[in-house]
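ok so i was messing around last nite and threw this chain in just to see what happens. nothing serious, just curious
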Amino acid sequence: MQPGEELQAVCTDPGVMHDIPAWCRINGHEVVEQRQRDDEYVVVVRVGEAI
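result:
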């Protein structure tokens, strides 16, 4: 993916609500949105510049 593009991850593990933001901080990406719908957890990530 290119910097600025967004990825929507739809997961069933509630741990992603903590794991993906931590991964983003380490790797220079940005969490744009987090939400839960029924038994799914949705995290939208904006790709940052390559480190």
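not much to say yet. Helices lie at 16-27.
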